[in-house]
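Help wanted!
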Amino acid sequence: MGLWASQVTPRLVASGGEDEKVRALRARACEGLRGEVVELGFGSAHNVGLYPAAVTRVTAVEPSDVAWDLGAERRARSPIPIVRGDLDGQWLSLDDGSADAVLSTFTLCTIPDVHRALAEVRRVLRPGAALHFLEHGIAQDEGVQRWQRLIEPVQKKVFDGCHLTRPIDRLVEESGLVIQDIERGYAPMPKVMRPWVFGYLGRARRT
Ligand SMILES: C[S@@+](CC[C@H](N)C(=O)[O-])C[C@H]1O[C@@H](n2cnc3c(N)ncnc32)[C@H](O)[C@@H]1O
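Answered by r_m:
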């Protein structure tokens, strides 16, 4: 991992994660979490404070030490225990069916082999448990999609492999998880931001 990806990107992401509107969407993604939760791409702990009281423990999967350290104060304020688990969502050491829920916010865009990571999510979820996701990805309008394809190579360089064109709903379905509810749409931001803010908020269950 280069200096930019290891040192700069986590700081850019950490400083951009606390917008009020984004936080409201994060809160909705966290609704209904309970028990043993695995958080994929935990980052700098931006979902801390939003986990429901029914969550007993969060196992954080996060490769970046810089992102992890930037979240230290937020983690310290969490009434719910948070432990750092595996470093790579593509290869989880957790047992099959051991998680009551998996949470992923703005992470499926970045994991290199997203199919592999979603297969791991499905494997570690207990039957009936769900992946809660809040992700950005390919927009519905062709005009915006064209911009997304154009910008994506630069985006990937600046934001540590972050894709703009991943079809999050299709990828989740292809993993064998069954989408229970999903909302798709642009976050309430200026039109010029559209390539970055087409969101997918939902839950997908392991049957
Ligand atoms: C855009 S950030 C989002 C962070 C956090 N989920 C949030 O909502 O603020 C993407 C995160 O995915 C992490 N990541 C990158 N590759 C990963 C992998 N293979 N497995 C798990 N997490 C990964 C990055 O280190 C980063 O923290």
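OP: Thanks! One thing I noticed: The mean pLDDT is 94.
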